[in-house]
Amino acid sequence: MDIFGIPIQALMGQLLIGLINGSFYAILSLGLAIIFGLLNIINFAHGALYMMGAFCAWIGLNWLGLNYWVALIAVPVVVGAFGMLIERTMLKHLYKLDHLYGLLLTFGLALIIEGLFRYRFGISGESYPVPELLAGGFNLGFMFLPKYRAWVIAVSLVVCFGSWFIIERTKLGSYLRAGTENPQLLQAFGINVPLMITLTYGFGVALAAFAGVLAAPVLQVNPVMGSNLIIVVFAVVVIGGMGSIMGSIVTGLGLGLIEGLTKVFYPEASAVVIFVIMGIVLLLRPAGLFGRER
Amino acid sequence: MNGKHIGWIVLLLIGLVAPFVVYPVLVMKILCFALFACAFNLLLGYTGLLSFGHAAFLGSAGYICGYAMQGLGLSPELGLLAGSAGAAVLGFIFGSLAIRRAGIYFAMITLALAQLVFFLALQFPFTGGEDGMQGIPRGRLFGLIDLADTMNMYFFVLAVFLFGFWVIDRAIDSPFGQVLKAIRENEPRAISLGYDVDRYKLLAFVLSAALAGLAGATKTLVFQLASLTDVHWHMSGEVVLMTLLGGVGTVFGPIVGATIVVSLQNYGAELGQWVTVLTGVIFVVCVLAFRRGVVGEVALLIKRSGIRP
């Protein structure tokens, strides 16, 4: 069975990979948007922390004998705590300065983290086995669906919409949104805003680490996996605008799919398609698809 | 005679003596990066725009100059002109898109566009992909002076650098530069005074891109090589580091910063992988505790000690 001369298995396979990449774009841009909302910092280290998540899972398995399921919970907690340490010791000194300093500091942190992992592991990368429970796949008739890939997409959607629900529909989320609008007023109402900022940064970082653990069995665990990803995620953030949580999720998934489709129909352009879309969006709707004009 | 005149004279003296004391190719490398950093500083230091994609101008000008010399057999001065013009056109495209968003978005857009240029450089046939362009001839300047001679090449690079630096210095002191500073300090006020802010930003961006391109094309002549390293995002980060370390918004800061960073990479080659970590540490320290940079701190010391230069 062919669609436009492309075998349907190949088409579906690429769409699946596109959807997986899109899930990572969504989780990372979601974290960037939450952090930016409250801290006014673009976290350049987000990619490096995602890479750190993948490596912590690998280290847990090979050095400590902790399996995938433990890593899925423990790694985000550990890396998130590391993030909170960064916020307490460094980022908190920057809130009164120009936003650009936050970007520069986290860029430096990204270089340090990436450099340390490259020193220890080289750039060839390590492979992480698919957990036994999720090995194999389903035969859907028109395509073969590996269980692990289905799991990544499903759990990413749950995490994305769970975050959306917490932020938009719970009391805790309303504090977060209030802090984004006016932190002084929120503080005056008796909320511990500095603590909230620390926890928010930790949560955003934990999301990145979680995506890293999910990615470990699908992609090569490699010290530069984060920096390759973060620049694409920046473009995703520019396209979607950071004003809306749902916007980040939809844009991330949508661009992943478009990238997958490009790989099928015009492979040469697949590396650049998201950047080209960014240029077009800037021409037509500078504030981004879901952004508000200021 | 004021501080800046003294600075110019010191710069000129160092430029004339340096090749007899230090390995000339190293000094040429420093001069190229110093021009690159000064061009970048015109945007960050004087207009308040952080471009995270300046490697695109350095690198693509290098490729264009290399192609003009190797593929078309043009003379070096035309090669430099072609490289700078190419970078200016690219700067116009980048600038027109990026100035549609302010602040942090500006940085992300320029970074993403530069990554687009990186992938194009990887795929275009004439760039040589992973291998880059090698064995680019230096040619004869104006058909007369043979640049294959190291000293001839050195003084040509010094002249190019001084020209570029003079252009930037003039731009900063001109009424145009005053408007840029006004935009940096308070954009809404500059708009309310009737300035077409976007046009000024775009012009500053194109000028900065063209001079970054001049630096890249000169670098290609010096090393007879154009490669992917110069379009990689690491290079965009490096120029930010040079400017930050030397002193953002100071005239001579980027030159000092470029000298420190290039020397560090040259003499610290045995550090290997640690160079990336060290670069990151310098970034963190500069942002947390050293935001004025070397030149900014020195200027402050002089001011506090009450000496009138």
UniProtKB/TrEMBL annotation, chain A:
Q: How does it sit in the membrane?
A: Multi-pass membrane protein
Q: Entry's CDD domains?
A: TM_PBP1_LivH_like
Q: Which InterPro entries match?
A: ABC_transp_permease, BCAA_transport_permease
Q: Which keywords does UniProt give here?
A: Amino-acid transport, Cell membrane, Membrane, Transmembrane, Transmembrane helix, Transport
Chain segments annotated as transmembrane: 6-28, 35-60, 66-86, 98-117, 148-167, 188-217, 229-258, 265-284
- For whether the record's keyword set contains Heme, the answer is no
Query: Where is this protein found?
Result: Cell membrane
- Keyword Transmembrane in record: yes
Coarsely, its chief localization is membrane
Family label: Belongs to the binding-protein-dependent transport system permease family. LivHM subfamily.
Q: What is this protein called?
A: Branched-chain amino acid ABC transporter permease
Organism equals Aromatoleum evansii
From TrEMBL, chain B:
Residues passing through the membrane, by range:
6-26, 33-58, 78-97, 104-124, 151-168, 202-227, 239-264, 271-290
Q: Write down the Pfam families for this protein, in alphabetical order.
A: BPD_transp_2 (PF02653)
Q: Classify the protein's membrane topology as the record does.
A: Multi-pass membrane protein
Keywords, sorted A to Z = Cell membrane, Membrane, Transmembrane, Transmembrane helix
Where does this polypeptide localize? Cell membrane
- The protein's name is Branched-chain amino acid ABC transporter permease
- What's the chief localization of this chain? membrane
Q: Which CDD domains match?
A: TM_PBP1_LivM_like
Q: Which domain of life is it from?
A: Bacteria
What lineage is this protein's organism placed in? Bacteria, Pseudomonadati, Pseudomonadota, Betaproteobacteria, Rhodocyclales
